[in-house]
Design brief:
Layout (H helix, E strand, L loop, with lengths): L1 E8 L8 E9 L2 H9 L5 H5 L1 E6 L5 E4 L19 E6 L2 E7 L12 E7 L15
Antiparallel strand pairs: 1-2, 3-4, 3-7, 5-6, 6-7
């Protein structure tokens, strides 16, 4: 749940007398789940991927596997830019800073996907046959 509030000011002026307050409570969980569940992945990719929405400190806000939500911190590299990827112990991690909306810069949240490398099956070795 997120709560946003703004002063209602006389004449709509940024420095007008405060007449009241407008507040909204926003349950972001359904939207966050729609984001992490809506990423288009093949069945194979989905089985080895985790899609997350991270706040600016790396806290997992939503996760496609529903693990660690609001508890786990997934640290991106200290020098993480607005968008990037890197390899990490047999997985590829990709991330992008969320863009905000119109003139709103956003909260510094990141979309992040971690995907394990596909399993490689060793080729079958032909058996010797008796002549």
């Amino acid at each position: 749940m997120a709560t946003y509030a703004a002063a209602i000011r006389a004449g709509g002026s940024a420095k007008g007398e405060v007449l009241g307050v407008l507040g909204i409570h926003f349950d972001w969980r359904p939207q966050a789940r729609a984001v992490v569940d809506g990423v288009r992945l093949t069945q194979d990719e989905r089985s080895r991927s985790r899609v997350m929405l991270l706040d600016s400190s790396g806290r997992v806000l939503a996760s496609s596997d529903r693990k660690g939500e609001l508890v786990e911190v997934f640290k991106l590299p200290a020098d993480a830019s607005a968008m990037g990827s890197y390899a990490d112990r047999g997985a590829t991690v990709g991330y992008a800073l969320t863009p905000g909306y119109e003139t709103y810069k956003g909260l510094g949240w990141y979309g992040c996907i971690t995907q394990a490398e596909p399993r490689r099956v060793a080729p079958a070795v032909p058996r010797a046959t008796a002549a």
